[in-house]
Structures are given as C-alpha cells and as structure tokens.
Amino acid sequence: MPSIPDWKITAIDKMGFGLLNKIFLQFSSIFWDEKLQNIDVITNHYYQFYVCIPEARILVLYIAGSHARDLEQQSDEEIVKTLVISLRRIYPLMTDPIK
C-alpha cells in the first residue's frame, strides 16, 4: 500500500473535528415554556439550551471551539454558575440545577 503524502497528512491533521462539550443540567421543576424545543441566550457568548428530556427536566447545551477550551479550565461549579447567570437573564425566578 502506498504511503500518504505529507501534504495530505498535514491537511487531515488541520481538519479535525475540534472540541465539543456537552453539558446537561437537571432541574427540580420546569421553569421554561413546555412548548419550547430550545432556549437561546446571548450574553458575551451564544448559548443554545435544548430541552433534552422534558419529563426529567433536563436541558442540554453544546459548547464548541475556543469557548469550550476556556470552560474546561473552570470547575464544574463555575461553569454551572455561568450558565445559570445566563439563563436568569430570561428566567429570573428559576431555581438552581439539582444536577
């Protein structure tokens, strides 16, 4: 089998999928409109929370790229705090996540 030229290996290495983090937040009760499929929040970052498992009161968020790398430097508690602050811009009376 012939070897792959260096220029192709370099191109493949540069493509990469990148970093993608999934964050699941579970709440004790639903505070969002149950008709929604997602909740978009724009702060200094764009967050799109998806209603993942309505009966379990779970929202999921996908974060990619440099912001995902930045968040990985924080503790789970700091990340949750950042996300709760962003959601409270829309839902000021929401409860904190239970998980």
Automatic annotation (TrEMBL):
Annotated coiled-coil segments of the chain: none
Gene3D superfamilies (alphabetical): 3.90.660.10
MF-aspect GO terms: oxidoreductase activity
SUPFAM superfamilies found in the cross-reference section: FAD-linked reductases, C-terminal domain
Top-level taxon in the UniProt lineage: Eukaryota
Residue stretches making up the Amine oxidase domain: 2-97
Protein name, as recorded: Amine oxidase domain-containing protein
